[in-house]
Amino acid sequence: MEYRRFGSTNLNLSVFSLGLMRCLSSPEIAIATIDHAIRAGVNHVETARGYGKSEEYLGLYLNSPTAVPREKIFITTKLPPTSGSSLMAEWIDQSLANLQTEYIDCLAIHGINTEQHLQWVSEADGCLAAIQTAQKLGKIRHLGFSSHGSLALILQIINTDLFAFANLHYYYFWQRNFPAIALAQQKDLGVFIISPIDKGGRLYNPPEVLQKLCQPLTPIEFNDRWLLNQQQITTLSFGVSCPAEIDLNRLQQKSVTATDILPQQLENIEQNLDLHGRNILKSDRCSQCNLCLPCPETINIPEVLRLRNLAVGYEMTDFGQYRYQMFENAGHWFPGKKGDRCTDCGDCLPRCPEKLDIPSLLRDTHQRLNGLPRRRLWENE
Ligand code: SF4
Ligand code: SF4
């Protein structure tokens, strides 16, 4: 296992971090899963108040006979933004009690997804005041954030200089947040990539064409390497529900860091993927420039068409349906309306440098990807 400095926190984290979002079936299974991951070299475990009983289960692990000493494991937990400091102070104490620990290594404000959330964090007597008090008391060591918001909002959050690390979405198949990753590096924030396998394209269940294009790597390995080749990225999360789901080969692969595949080979895979997508999509390919926005119907045009790019270009229909069906069902976690809301007003058309017939492509995407609505895996925030 490779370890990297987590930005200005100066923590030395394993390049893979265990996320507990799915590890909720029983305390025994959670403890066994954490134990198994730690034996594989993982030293960073991520939980959140919103992930069911996962804080409590991690607390049980920390106090179990098999636990490594507290100073050998780094814990991130996440609490949502709130307008008042007293509620945040209560939540912090509750997390410490759940985790049965004296301190939280990394507290992330979970989902600064809107301007209002950021305002709650930064206003006088907002939730930051409680966090700073907890930091002075030694209850929290480092503060970070996660965001599913716009790139502009994420850049604004980083530029507040309040945070030592960022939990971000960024994958080969979704590179919109690259400027945020670059700014995080410039400001020495640790970078934690959220869910690269699942949100990065459901890469555990790749279509045949994708498997072929990524050879000699699997799509998961390709995405891991593509991410970890960027030195500004510290760690990638992996979420499992039991010890058997931990892919030891992946965690321990020397490959991730390198020697058995040359950078040129990695570049070749990238080129193959890019070329294949362009050849299949032809003049219907959305280049993800975002220039079509805003849409008066608040359709997230680039994201809808990204899902179409993936479904048509790489047969990633399963992933496309999974994400598309979250529009209009997941609030600020996945904003924007579905493609069938287009009124043909035409506002976006002159702004598209690819001259795409956006309304037709949106309707086509809706037909391909719409189905029963989905919600997020955890929803109790
Ligand atoms: S044509 Fe459709 S997608 Fe384009 S701006 Fe109008 S409503 Fe939005
Ligand atoms: S302007 Fe055109 S190419 Fe750019 S994101 Fe919008 S639809 Fe895609």
Examine the secondary-structure arrangement and name the CATH architecture of the largest domain. Answer: Alpha-Beta Barrel
Strand order of the largest sheet: 3-4-5-6-7-8-9-10
Distance between the termini: 34 Å
Mean pLDDT reading: 90
Tell me what you see in this structure.
It is a single chain. The protein is an alpha/beta fold and 381 residues long. It folds into two domains: 258 residues, NADP-dependent oxidoreductase domain (TIM Barrel); 105 residues, no CATH class. The chain is 39% helix and 12% strand. The strands form two sheets. The protein has an eight-stranded parallel barrel with strand order 3-4-5-6-7-8-9-10, surrounded by five helices. A two-stranded antiparallel sheet has the order 1-2. Helix 7 links the parallel strand 8 and strand 9. Helix 3 crosses helix 5 and helix 12 packs antiparallel against helix 13. The C terminus is likely disordered. The site of one iron/sulfur cluster has 15 residues, from helix 12.
Could you provide a short overview of the structure?
The protein is built from 14 helices and ten strands. By secondary structure, the chain is an alpha/beta fold.
